[in-house]
Every structure is written in structure tokens, then in C-alpha cells.
Amino acid sequence: MLSSEDHALFAATRGERQCGRLVNPKVPDNVDRPPTIAVGNGEPVTKLLYGQLDAEWPAGMNLDRLPPVMASDQTGAARSIQGLVLATITDLLADAGAAALLTRYATLSMAIAIRTHPNCTEFFDVSDAKARLLRAKQLIAADHAAHWTVGELADRVGMGRSSFSAGFKAEFGMTPMACLTEKRMEHAAILLQTGSFKVSEVASRTGYDSPQSFFRCFKQHFGSSPEKWRKAVRRRD
Predict the structure, then answer these.
(1) Rounded-to-integer distance, Cα 121 and Cα 125, Å
(2) Residues contacting residue 156 through CB under 8 Å, at least 6 positions apart
(3) What pLDDT is recorded for position 110?
(4) Which residues lie closer than 8 Å to 44 by C-beta, 6 or more apart?
């Protein structure tokens, strides 16, 4: 996910050998209409789109392997798409909303540059992503009574919410919340079978705010109420 910072359009004119100092365009008047800064006099011969983007990288992205400069040398569909988009927005850069258009174009350009780079696959470290997913599962097992959410677990292991949720299910065959419920039910079964706790106490010890919520989850998981399950197990023992 990319978000906009500063954008500016620099135009180098014919006969000029020096590029003037890059001016930070982050001023109130330029928030929606990035400035065009001319370097030299005469008709423009080169245009440089300058900007900054904040990126929320996907899980497993190895930032150390990203090259400091990526030249956009595209062919085929990628080049056609970028050329069409740039031609469409060029005439709109002086109008309201230009910053948003430039952000979308920069996002597209960066995504294409990464995907078409010959070392694209090296930018992603799958083993690191698996380690983070395993860490999340360990967090659940270590404190299943905590009020975990998918977002909180993703933050704890340094992953985006969507990529974490999808990766967790692909790796372990269940969603993070299903894993949390399973761990809670395992502990609840031990408490009911070996202790003399009331159902309300078991509910509290396994992370449920109310006995009713615990009762519903337990019955859905084991097929019977907590008390009936405890009696049946103890009769078998």
C-alpha cells in the first residue's frame, strides 16, 4: 500500500547543463496542485516527476535486497499501460486533484518496476513470512485467554492484516480466530475434565467475557454443553 508525500514536476530546458536545487513542494498551496518548477529558460526538453511514497510492504518483503535505483525498462503490455496512463494525466496536472492522480501513477510505476525487475523473486523471503506466521500461532498458544484480534496479531509479527490472515490460513489450514478458538477449547476441556470449576469460571479462564458466549462456542466445537460433556467424560473415565 502506498500513500502520497510530496510531488513536483521539474522541466529541464534546452541548453541548460545545471539542475536547480530541488524545492520541497510540501506547502499548503501545493497540497492538491503540485508545482511545476522550471530549470532554465526556453521550451522543455525533459520532464522529471519527483515525489516520495510511503510504502506498507507485504509480508516477506526483503527490503535489503531492493536496489537503490530501479530503471523502468519495460516492454509490451506494461509499457503500453504506463504510457497510456501518463498521457491521460499529463494535461490534468494543473487541475485540482493532481496530487491524487500522481500518487496513483507513482504507485502503478513502482509496482510495475518491481514486478518486471529480473531479480523480483529475490525481493521476497518466504521463509521469513513463515517464521512470522509461526510466531503468531505461538502467541495464541501462550496466551489464548487474551482478547486477540487479527489486526493485533498481524501488528505483533510485523505483517499487514490481509496478508497475515491469508498467509495464516494457507499455512495452518484455519483462520487465526479459528486457531484461537481451538486453543481455548483445548484448555476448557482440560479444566472441565480435571477440575471442579464452574462453567462461568472456565469461561473466564479461557478468555470469554460471558458464560453464554463460552457455552455457544463449546457446544459448537464439541457438540454438547460443557456440563453434559464433563459428565460424559467422567463416566468414561
Answers:
(1) 8
(2) 135, 136, 139
(3) 77
(4) 11, 12, 13, 38
